[in-house]
UniProtKB/TrEMBL annotation:
Organism: Volvox africanus
Entry GO terms, CC: precatalytic spliceosome
Name of protein: U1-type domain-containing protein
Superkingdom of the organism of origin: Eukaryota
SUPFAM superfamilies named among the record's database cross-references: beta-beta-alpha zinc fingers
Gene Ontology BP annotations: mRNA splicing, via spliceosome
Composition skew (Gly residues), residue ranges: 207-219
Chain intervals for the UniProt region annotation (Disordered): 207-273
InterPro entries (UniProt xref): Matrin/U1-like-C_Znf_C2H2, U1-CZ_Znf_C2H2, WBP4, Znf_C2H2_sf, ZOP1_OCRE
Entry's Gene Ontology molecular function annotations: RNA binding; zinc ion binding
Low complexity bias locations: 260-273
Residue ranges occupied by any U1-type domain in the UniProt entry: 8-43
Keywords: Metal-binding, Zinc, Zinc-finger
Family annotation (Pfam families): zf-U1 (PF06220)
Amino acid sequence: MTEYWKSNAMHWCDICKCWMNDTKAARLNHERGAQHQAKLATKLRDMAKKSDQETKAKAFNEAAMSKIEAAAKKQYEQDRKAAEAAAGSWTWDTECSYYYNVTHRWYYDPKTQWYYGGEPTPEWSQSPPLPAAAMFGVAPHEGGPVPKGTAGAAVAAGGASTSGRLDSLPVATKTVQRVLAVPKHPLADVGGYRAPTTGRIGGHMGAGVEVEGGAGDGGNVTKRKREEQHAKAGGKGGTKPAAVSAEEAEALARREAARQRVAQRTAAGFGYL
Ligand SMILES: [Zn+2]
């Protein structure tokens, strides 16, 4: 049986940040020591202080928040009351059988859902110049044929179905996607060197622009030649190019043989043969 090293169990004192043997005697000895006692007392004091501070801060924050909330609530109530006062309210006028808004001096007919008012000459209107909050159904109303707390549009005796009140209310906005229409080049399907010369790709550099006539500048000669060949081949309506002559066929065969020789030699050089 081979011997092997085994460490003693050790105990870590988290207060003094030190190790000691994990035996009852060693632990007791350490915990009774003056250093450990002093550090323990300091730690307890710090913890108490910290928790005290936290409690104080929490209480302070809560007080501040409740103060802010109270102020906001008060402001909200004030604003609401002001808005209500500005909107006015509709009361049923038994003499003319219309609702009347004293604040804005407009009448409302629940049967037709038209408004009557305006200065200097009052007129009938479906979309009176009233704030949205003052319209009938939005602002509160009292008495009359329309029950309290309803908009009136649904209840009002089956009159006009289109309501001016609805038109003047804020309408939900509709998102319209804008599509940029790039004109399609007549040769776009051909691709390659005949790619579209307008649009995002190629067009800016003039890529694929065919040179017409003019043998002047020499830079484009080869390109033009190729294009001409292409045009010739395409011009015959997809027929095969002219048959190669015997001389040309022989040259091609020789070229192919040479290519194969080179390939063989290369393979041999790499040890493949
Ligand atoms: Zn300790």
